[in-house]
Every structure is written in C-alpha cells, then in structure tokens.
Write a structure and sequence with these properties.
The complex is a heterodimer of chains A (146) and B (113). Chain A has three helices and five strands; from the N terminus they run E-H-H-E-E-H-E-E. Chain A has 146 residues and is of the alpha+beta class. Chain A has one domain: Histidine kinase-like ATPase, C-terminal domain (Heat Shock Protein 90, 2-Layer Sandwich). In chain A, helix 1 packs antiparallel against helix 2 and helix 2 packs antiparallel against helix 3. The two termini of chain A are 29 Å apart. In chain A, 36% of the residues are buried. With 113 residues, chain B is of the alpha/beta class. Chain B has one domain: 2-Layer Sandwich (Transcription Regulator spoIIAA), CATH 3.30.750.24. Chain B has a five-stranded mixed sheet, sandwiched between helices. The two termini of chain B are 25 Å apart. The chains are: A alpha+beta (146), B alpha/beta (113). Chains A and B meet through helix 2 and helix 3 of A and helix 2 and helix 3 of B.
C-alpha cells in the first residue's frame, strides 16, 4: 500500500478567537505527521484561519456556548479540512468579489477569497434544516504554492 | 502601547514597527489603535514597518485598508515597508499591493516622504 491514510483528527472548539491557535496547532501536528512542508502548511493554515474565524464571527456570532468543529483528513497527498459552526446558515453566493474595483477598499469581504485562493477546492454546505454551515476545503499538498 | 506595535520618530515621519500576528483577535485592533492614535496626534507621514510580521489574515488586511483610507481622508500619507514574502503574496492576490505605497526597505520608504 503506497497511499497514506489516517483516521481524521477532530476538534471541538468554543467560539473564541484565541481558539483559532488550537486549530493551527492541530494543523501543525497533522502536517508534521503527513509530510506537509512548511510553506504549504502556511498557505493551508491561512485558509484554516479564515474558515475558523468565519465560523466564530459570522456563524456562531462569538457565542462561547456554541462550538466550532474542525476536522483534518489526509488521504494520499490530499488534505481535507472541514470547519462547521452552529450558526443560522450561510449563502456563499452572496459574497461580493473583493477584486471588483468598487470593493477594493472595503475593510472586509476577503476571507472566502483567500480560502479559495490557497486551497484547491472549497465548498459550503448548510446543515439539516438550514442551521449551521460546514465548509470543506481540500488541497493537494504536493503541489507548489498557489 | 502594546506588544504588537511600537512607534518611533524618523525625522517628521512616525514609524510604526509591527510585530507578530496581525490577525483577528490578535493584533488587528492593536494596529488600528496605534495608527489612529498617531493620526490623532497630528502625524501626516506614517510608515508601517512590517519586517517582523509573521502572519496576517483577512481581518488584518481589512484593518490595513481601513487605516489607509482613514489616513488619506485626514490628508496624511501612509507607506508600507519591509513586507515579508508571504505578507507580500497575501496583498498581491487581492491586488492591494497596487493600492498601498509599498517599499522594499525603510530607507527607501523614508526617501522623499
């Protein structure tokens, strides 16, 4: 068997910004165990940071009683990260293009763009009954920097 | 002042040395407060030295954009210098690198400010 595959790593975090660093520490550990190089880990981490920050801020509205789920799953040369919240759901189609001239000087609205830039595939799924959002991000970590 | 930002003078230019993470909940507000305080003190030339910034996220980038707009609206100039490669990349992909006044070194940024 040449393809590496491990059980997913799953974290449950309360909705506090400082817990983003716990997710980053988990990524560091997963990267070390999976042979993900430092530069690649940095860009995956950038996407992870954005996804967890969105879950805390926009999903769970910083309610520390609500949790953020983060999972890491490595299969072969692909890492898949899922970030879920307990918020009201999210319409990813409603996000404005941060590269449009009229949006360039807006102070917000770049997080999802960064996630899509630094990962190969990013999808959003609303939970049952429309509650909660799960963002799934996949990256082939043997590819070079985006 | 706080651990993420220190302010010093270089002639009539206020130099803000940023350090560490400029990310949500960890440095973003410190940076904004420091720049706004500097503007409130009457500074018209502000140089942000990013040499020791390790990570910036979309919130940090947004704060930079907001501070740039605030400075411009107050008739002040804001320049960036010493961007680490990855910070430069983050600003490049959103095309903000062309919006900001970016210099490769502090000396270059101070020249003709």
């Amino acid at each position: 068997m040449t393809e590496s595959s491990r059980s997913p790593v799953v974290l449950w975090l309360s909705s506090r910004y400082e817990n983003i660093e716990l997710a980053m520490a988990a990524l560091e550990e997963v990267s070390r165990n999976s042979g993900i190089e430092n530069d690649m880990e940095h860009w995956i981490g950038m996407a992870l940071r954005e996804a967890v920050a969105n879950a805390i801020k926009h999903g769970n509205r910083q309610d520390p009683e609500k949790r953020v789920m983060v999972s890491f799953d490595v299969k072969g040369d692909d890492i898949t990260i899922r970030v879920g919240d307990e918020g009201p759901g999210f319409d990813s189609g409603s996000v404005a293009d941060p590269l449009a001239p009229e949006n360039q000087l807006r102070p917000s609205g770049r997080g999802i763009f960064y996630m899509k830039t630094f990962m190969d595939l990013v999808t959003f799924q609303n939970g049952d009954g429309g509650g909660g959002t799960i963002v799934t991000m996949t990256k082939n970590f043997k590819n070079k920097k985006p | 002042m706080n651990k993420n930002v220190t302010v010093r003078d270089a002639g009539d230019v206020k130099v803000l040395d940023l350090k560490g993470k400029i990310t949500i909940g960890a440095g973003d507000l410190h940076m904004r407060e420091a720049i706004h305080q500097t503007l409130a003190g009457g500074a018209k030339k502000i140089l942000i030295n990013m040499k020791e910034v390790t990570t910036i996220d979309s919130t940090g980038v947004g704060e930079l954009v907001g501070c740039y707009t605030t400075a411009t609206n107050k008739g002040a100039k804001l320049r960036l210098a010493n961007l680490p490669e990855k910070i430069n990349d983050v600003l490049t992909v959103t095309q903000l690198i062309t919006v900001f006044d970016v210099y490769t070194s502090e000396a270059e940024a101070l020249e003709g400010f």
